Amino acid sequence: MSTSKKVLVIDDEEGIRESLKLILGEHYELILTDSGEQGLDVLANADDIGLVLLDIKMPQVSGLDILKQLKEQDPNMNVIMVTGYKSVETAAEAVSLGACGYIVKPFKSDEILEKVKKHLK
Ligand SMILES: [Mg+2]
Fold first, then answer.
1. pTM of the model
2. Residue 43: pLDDT above 90?
3. Ligand 1 centre from 1 Cα, in Å?
4. How many Cα atoms sit within 13 Å of 9 on the Cβ side?
């Protein structure tokens, strides 16, 4: 791949992290985290993240709140929300807060690959 930037995944579900790793792992370098707090911490200490995949529904702090903090911390970071079909309205709200798009679970691998390719900086 032409880019050396990494993709940061923030999702509390191990199965989703594993799926994303299977789909993206051979094309991109990934950092997998299971909470927004951990993800923000990684972002604050790394300068080679080119895209964040951010789950909306997480137990402690929601993806929407993490998105707000992330955008304060790093306004230019590209973020794609990962959402269940029940939270599609929330995903649309996330886009109005600066996310560049969203992926609805269960997702298709070609959809993920296309969106990551398009938005990875
Ligand atoms: Mg979740």
1. 0.94
2. yes
3. 29
4. 26
Q: What is the pLDDT, as a whole number, of residue 85?
A: 82
Alpha-carbon separation of residue 71 from 68, 78, 85, 117 (angstroms): 5, 9, 24, 21
Place of tokens 């994303």: 20
List of domains in the chain: 6-119 (3.40.50.2300)
How many A from CA of 83 to the centre of ligand 1?
8
Q: Which residues face 10 on adjacent strands?
A: 33, 54
Residue 76 C-alpha to ligand 1 middle, in angstroms?
24
How many A from CA of 69 to the centre of ligand 1?
Answer: 18
Asked whether the predicted pLDDT for residue 70 surpasses 50, the reply is yes
Identify the sign of the CA torsion 113, 10, 20, 30: positive
Q: What is the whole-number distance in angstroms between the Cα of residue 108 and the centre of ligand 1?
A: 17
Question: Closest Cα to residue 115, out of 79, 74, 70?
Answer: 79
Which pLDDT tens digit goes with each residue over 20-34?
A: 999 999 999 999 999
Place of tokens 């951010």: 54
> In angstroms, what is the span from residue 10 Cα to ligand 1's centroid?
9
